Amino acid sequence: MTIDKMRETTFNKATMDEWEQVALKSLKGKTLESLSMKTLEDIILKPLYSLEDVANLPASSQTAIVRQAKNSSEWQVAQVAEGSTSEVILVEITETLSKGNDVIHFTLEKEQTWNASQIEELAALLAKHPAILDVTNDPDFLNHFPDLKGLIKGAGNAELPNARTYFLNGSSIHQAGGDAVSELASVLVQADALARNTSIEELVSKAFVQFSVENNFFMEIAKIRAFRVLWEAFGQSYGNTNIATIPVHTETSLRSYSVLDANVNILRGGNSALAAVLGGADSLTTYPHNYLTGVTPTSNRIARNMQLVLKEETHIGRVIDAAGGSYYVDTLTNGLVEKTWSYFLTLMKEATIEEREAKLLKRAEVKWEEQLTALSTRKKSLIGTNTYANPNDVIGDSIKLTNYKRLAEPFEQLRKAFQESPLNTAIIPYGILKEYKARMDFVSGYLIALGISPIVAPENLKPFDLRKWIAEQGIDYVVFVGNDEQTAGLVPALLNEQLPVPMDIAGKFEEYEDWLDAGLSGCIFAGQSLLEKGQDLLALVKKGDSHVNA
To answer: Smallest Cα–Cα separation from 407: which of 370, 441, 452, 432?
Structure first.
């Protein structure tokens, strides 16, 4: 085809009806509604968004608010300097500033002792660079830096005319397990309390907000965008129809970080970092992938370079609100705005801020359990933890404590328990390989996620040979794997043989209750709770240990 013909080529405009017909054909009997899903925030996500979805949304005003909130699409790289001594902190601050950091960012710890020369050195650095400091442990430390610029947590009554000291903490409810609606509503509750104690004008001039950004990519983009819109609505509720924006500091969330297959945390952190930038963050902290087990110079560099690569190689720093105009993102942003504002008004019916915060924490607990259930039943994946687990991963004795509830933690605890008290497990296959392989692979991956590495017995062993093999291999527990016909026909026979170890079956069967009465231990199937099954199997280990001790 010539270039002229290519230019003359036209395409028929696709219609929604045509898409629906193609989609229904591919669904093979399922409905279009089956493609929709509900988020943790109870927002229904559709499989396809079109102009019709934003026709009735305040999309233009929403987008204008988001884009007017920033003068440029740039953001500050705000990597944290950590150390037990002031010497270590100063060395790390100086080094990171020379390698791409824009901000002096650290927490003042109680054990740190700063002498006069170190304070002078830090003051010289603070004269050139903005800061993000947490001085909760010693607010008087700020007296050395009256001209400090930046964002300060725990400032107390310190007078810092060039710094923002009213901290709106959106991270705390996230760390407790809350969803995006809880985080946004929590910030509004805090802002209302500060505005009532001071004034809306002082709040605007002294406040900044922090969010933790999870790797739920589009939701996190929408969360930060929604805050800009909600902040505008909050100002209007106080009679400030042209409220000034406040800085939004973000950090990559540790909620989904795992000690297991920790390199995957690089992907999680990178995903979160990109979401924060596209959402419109003013500053960003990215945590190293091995933050939980011990940061190294290399992992620190990787974390910092995530942002530098985004700045230098993606061109996203050239566009304000690059996500704006997406039917999906605009709809999601509006959904968060509506749900958050409605929930905020509900919270404000409570008499005190303590009661509002208690209600937020109660919601966070519910949302946390929903997330754990989704992971435990594998409706959601945490790669390397509940799916595609590496059997060679070892849980060490030292895991850094954080303020975050981590989704991987209960899985790590199970892995640690089976690491210390192994359950020698075998899969006993019956039938033809091609008929049972899928089930066998599922059981193997399921058990490995719990910290149990099963071996596979020779297939189609007769009861006598099976008993002999179990004894020779020192097996504590077996799982029968076969197709439906083999399972229904052979499981009762094996139960009659009264094997010397507990036996589970792979799959769900109508005869299951009868088999339990005949001595079956349990089953493994898709949709079953990993955490509950792990505890059941851990009980087998403890029962075996008690027999040995007896």
So the answer is: 370
CATH of the domain spanning 421-549, picked from 3.90.1150.10, 3.40.640.10, 3.40.30.10, 3.40.50.280: 3.40.50.280
Question: What would the two tokens of residue 541 be?
Answer: 């280990």
Q: How many CB atoms lie under 10 A from the CB of residue 444?
A: 21
455 Cβ contact list (under 8 Å, min separation 6): 425, 426, 427, 473
pLDDT tens profile 41-51: 999 999 999 88
In tens, the pLDDT along 324-350 reads 999 999 999 999 999 999 999 999 999
> Model-level pTM?
0.92
- The model's pLDDT over 162-179, given as tens digits with 9 standing for 90+, comes to 999 999 999 999 999 999
CA 392 vs. chain centroid, Å, equals 24
Asked if residue 107 has pLDDT above 50, the reply is yes
Beta strands in 414-550 (DSSP E): 425-429, 455-456, 477-481, 503-506, 522-524
| CATH number 3.40.50.20 given to 59-75+173-369 | no
Number of Cβ within 10 Å of residue 156's Cβ equals 12
Residues 6+ apart with CB under 8 A from 417: 451, 538, 541
